[in-house]
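Hi R.,

Here's the chain you asked about this morning:
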Amino acid sequence: MISTPRLARRLLSFLLLAMPFSLSQMSLAKDLYQDTHTVTSEFGETRIEGTPQRIVTLYQGATDSAVALGITPVGVVDSWMERPMYRYLRDELEGVEHVGLETQPNLEQIAWLKPDLIVATRFRHERVRPLLERIAPTVAQRQVFDFRDSLRMLGEATGREQRANQLLDDWNERVADFRIRIADKLGDEWPQKAAVVRFKSDHVRIYSTGFAGSILDEIGFTQPESIEDEGWGMKLSSKENIPVLNADVLFLLLDPNDPAIMDNYRDWSSHPLWQQLDAVQAGRVYEVDPVSWIMGGGILAANLMLDDLYAHYGFENQGIESQGFENQGLQDQGSQDPGPR
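And the predicted structure, written out as tokens:
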């Protein structure tokens, strides 16, 4: 694991050797920065001097949030799919250093980048918290999928609260617009029961919480009764469990580049029990992007997920482009709050 005694000793030795240089940098920082603020997160109260310029993000939602705020981190962790970085973030993160996996970041590499802010998650990084905090001020979220809190926390830590609040206001407007449209279109058939189903090579997962689940819940979708008390969801290994997937609408997460996954999908979807599902009979089975629905974890991915919903229900997309944002929400960086790009 990343918190082994050997790694801890090596990292501590590095930090001690770097101490004189770090102290001189701190003296310089006092001249450059005139304010200090405290951010309260899952790692307690973190004191941050001035506006951080060298930020390392250690989970997907933090990386997404940084880009949305107009920040180019000096270090990011690898993406779960489309490695090393999701396609929707690649242009903004071209040339950025990668510091390992979200579950196993390279602490020495992070230290060499000399960050002045690290953005972590308690869920992933509690065991290495002392080492992270030796490197730089570290703030953390409890979970990896709460994009609102990730955005607010990073906005507060970097002096971009106004930008973060604007992004969330825009999100709330889009959600309100979609809710009005879908209620008008479906009438008494709204709300619909929605199932987010991911096919793996040897099993199927149905999600009830997490990133996609929380957004569907916010919009007004409900869950199938079969998973209401199942925590994150269920793992299904037998096609006899197909009735568990019964819902008004199915959102499928596939990987067309993985033959084993696609074979498993064809096997399940050709089964007579699959054909009896309400969503299948009504023609409401939609393939969606796993990156934006469960992997991205930030405000930009949330907007891409909402784009999918607008498209699948045939609504004119009140998307981020119509709000004046280019690509993933970035237009004129010079007009945003000061900070690294």
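The chain has two domains: 5-159, 187-315.

Let me know if you need anything else.
M.
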